[in-house]
Amino acid sequence: MPDDEDNDNQDNQNNQPGPNTFVVKFLDHFSTIEQQNRWHYELNEILQGKDEKVDSYANRFRRLKRKVDPHGNVPESYIIRLFLKGLRKDLVRWVAANKPDTIEEAIQEAIDYEAGVYFERQSERHERQVERKTKSPNDDAIEALVKQMEKLSLNYANIVSALSAQTQSKPRNPNTNTRFDKSQITCFNCQKKGHYAKECNEP
Questions:
Q1: Percent helix, strand, coil in the chain (nearest 5)?
Q2: What's CA 63's distance to the chain center, in Å?
Q3: Among residues 96, 114, 179, 188, which one has the fewest Cβ atoms lying within 10 Å of its Cβ?
């Protein structure tokens, strides 16, 4: 029986093995109903691993697809939906947005997107490493000092605000800075107005 990798290469070139190939004849003759049902189930449930590359997932998908549909009778749109169902969510959005017409186009879109994201992340990681290397120790000290100053300024503003609120809410003493009008007071000693008897200068 041909090796799986050789079969995958054949799928890539012709999209589907011809009806007279050895693989198709072998599957038609020897596969049982139980095996076919199991392959259908596995194709519906196949998932890309968390750290699995698209290439690896696509090869597993192709092998199951070839077993389930050796004659290429299943509609291409349905095969693409099964492939996207097991693909990682971040890849699904990209592939679906590009609306591939064949399963091989869908696989290639996923591979291209995965490669682009990988190189983008590598570039960002490299930039962060370069930034850390070029950053001097004095920059860290200055940054820490600035944060401390900001914290002190905030604390000072909070204290001033609290004192201001206390001052405004404190009731005023009604006797503070208030003088009594004596113009209508009559002195018992001289019978004149404007002062008390104890303040009178008359004998």
A1: 65, 0, 30
A2: 35
A3: 179
Model pTM score: 0.48
* Contact between 102 and 15 (Cβ < 8 Å): yes
Residues in the chain: 203
pLDDT in tens, 163-194: 776 666 555 555 545 566 777 777 877 888 88
Tokens standing for residue 70: 């050796």
Tokens of 19: 């009806």
**Residue 139 and residue 152: Cα distance in Å, rounded?**
20
Place of tokens 């194709």: 43
**Euclidean distance between CA atoms 131 and 144, whole angstroms:** 18
Q: Give how far the C-alpha of residue 186 lies from the chain's centroid of Cα atoms, to the nearest Å.
A: 86
